[in-house]
Each structure stands twice: as C-alpha cells, then as structure tokens.
Input
Amino acid sequence: MSSTNDYGPGVATSSELVTSEVLPGQLSDIVRQSLPKHVAIIMDGNGRWAQNKSMPRVVGHKAGVKAVRRIVSAASQLGIASLTLFAFSSENWRRPDKEVNLLMELFFSVLQREIKRLDKNQVKLNIIGDISRFSARLQAQIAQAQDKTKDNTGLVLNVAANYGGRWDIMQAAQKLAEKVESGEISSSQMTEEALNQHLCMQNQSEVDLMIRTGGDYRISNFILWQAAYAELVFTETLWPDFDENAFHHALATFASRQRRFGLTGSQIEEIRAL
Output
C-alpha cells in the first residue's frame, strides 16, 4: 500500500484545500482556521458502484474499504479530532442474508488487517452501536481492536455498526430511567446534559459536518442527537470514488457557511470581530 494511504505523509494540508473552483481565494485562510472538529460520513453507494461495473455488490464494499483508508488518512493528517463513519445501520439487517454475512466477514477481516496501521498512526478506534447482535468471534475482535488503540492520542475513529440514532437516544433514556427508579437521581435531573452523557460518543464534541455520498438527500437515522447543528453536505459521488479531493471540497463548503446556532447573521459577525 502506498504511503498516501498510510494515515501519514502525502495528504494535502489545509492550506491547499481551496482552489478558485471551490471558493474565492481570499477564503483559503478561513478554511485553514475553520476545519470541523468532528466529521461524520454516511458512506453510501458501494452496491451501486459495483453494479455499474457489472460486479457483485461485495466488490463495491471491498472498494469502499479503500475509500475509508483514504479519508481516515486525510482526516488524521489535517488534525480533525473525530471522524464517524456509518458502516452498518440497524436497518441493514433487512438486506439479503448472503450480503449481511459477507459484510460481517469483511468487518472482521478489516479489523484484523487495519488495527496495526491505526495503532501506528495514533488513531483511536471506537465502535458505536449495539454489538450484542454480532457473533462472539466478531465481538471479541472489536474488543481487541478497541483495547489496542485505547490510549492513542490522534484521530478518534468512530465506526457505527448496528447503529441507529433512535436506538442511541432510547438506550440513553433507559439508563437514565433506571437511575431514577433506583433513586440514584431525581426526575428533575433528567436534563439534556444528563441524557447526552449516556449517548454514544458522549466525551467527544458534537458533529460539525455530516457528509452523505451516493446522491440521496437524507440522514437515515444516523446520530440524530449529536448532529443537531451539523452542516450537511450531499454529493452524487459514490463512496468508493470519494477521494481526498472530494473530502477537501466538502471541508471547503463547510468553511464557507455561517453557523448561527439560533443567532442572527449580524450577531455572528459581531462575535467574529471581537
């Protein structure tokens, strides 16, 4: 594998992100200073990519793994704090059994193969979702991979597997309800902050930018709570074709937007001027 896919040198720096085709040149400094802390990606289009080439869908999923390597490398090199990838939703169990089984085997083999590279480059792996439905073999591999990288200080790579945003909110609410029932907390202490502390990724910043590849315009029950104020970028590019340039373009789009969080544009400009 080339060095550009090794989570190391060879990836463009943030100062190289914007060309005149993306944003006016004077905004390049803004892009440098406005990179999101947390990026989430709905990796859609693997199956269609393979079908367009008259290949089995599993070939598209394997090609998608290469795209994951590219984007993990780019995010790590740029100093982005967290990258969350939607690998397998709780709804994906509805797919044909053969495809689901192949995806599970691919997940297992990728964990085995990639963990040394992730660890070498200080990437911390965090699997989010209800993994209890996975085989004991896969659960053990997940535990091993997370344990090996738990002390790493670089990019936090969250991989959502058997994950759904509604499930995440519900499991957090149930944990809070149990605390109320046991008398550990009162019902008045069931606040947004308390719920947030029981969600997946509770110790990470909220999602700043959510990207969806593959041409659909929906978020498909992905990190509903954590992405409440995220900027959304949709692209027609199928996931296996999503490369560093496409990622940089999404980052430039993010930098060009004014995030108001309920304030007016004038208020934001006043804050920036301070």
User: Anything to note?
Assistant: The CA atoms of residues 8 and 77 lie 6 Å apart. The longest helix spans residues 97-120. Residues 3-10+35-164+205-273 form a domain with the Undecaprenyl pyrophosphate synthetase fold (CATH 3.40.1180.10).
